[in-house]
Design a protein that fits this description.
alpha/beta, two-stranded antiparallel ribbon, 7 helices, globular
């Protein structure tokens, strides 16, 4: 079994790769005409902060840890007492999705409202990650992929 110190360089390299993907996704975009939104998201030394919307806070937390100061992450469901199956998105949630450059949804029937928000706000310059599709779990399967270390690793990678 490898020690935590021996695994650290690989984990760091994987995190850097995800940040590069997130930053690269932002670098290829056209400028937004909504300057109020851009100023609210802030800036980094190298450019604009990438707005990321995660349907749930467990995926949003990973995005924030990997993206650091290069991302502004909004988790739509950020209260563990909220049931994602019954969640009714707000107008603010729709606005967040509409302005997001990167989205992360669980899928697998866990957050069906997220697909509706994405469909209502199509974005040609938005990149999306659907965890269920990534890990090969179809609707009706176990949607609790954040409990699987192998699946979380795939999301990180």
């Amino acid at each position: 079994m490898r020690s935590a110190i021996a695994r650290r360089p690989r984990a760091l390299a994987e995190g850097v790769a995800v940040v590069a993907v997130l930053v690269g996704a932002g670098a290829c975009s056209t400028a937004s005409s909504d300057t109020a939104d851009e100023s609210a998201r802030g800036k980094t030394v190298s450019g604009k902060v990438i707005p990321v919307v995660a349907a749930e806070n467990f995926w949003g937390s990973i995005a924030q840890q990997l993206g650091g100061s290069h991302v502004h992450v909004k988790s739509i469901i950020d209260n563990p007492a909220t049931d994602p199956h019954d969640y009714e998105p707000t107008a603010a949630d729709g606005r967040a999705v509409a302005t997001a450059r990167y989205t992360i949804v669980n899928g697998i029937g866990y957050d069906p409202w997220a697909d509706k928000l994405l469909s209502a706000n199509p974005g040609n310059d938005r990149t999306g990650l659907k965890v269920g599709d990534l890990v090969g779990v179809r609707p009706g399967g176990n949607p609790h992929r954040w409990y699987s270390p192998a699946d979380v690793r795939k999301v990180i990678e």
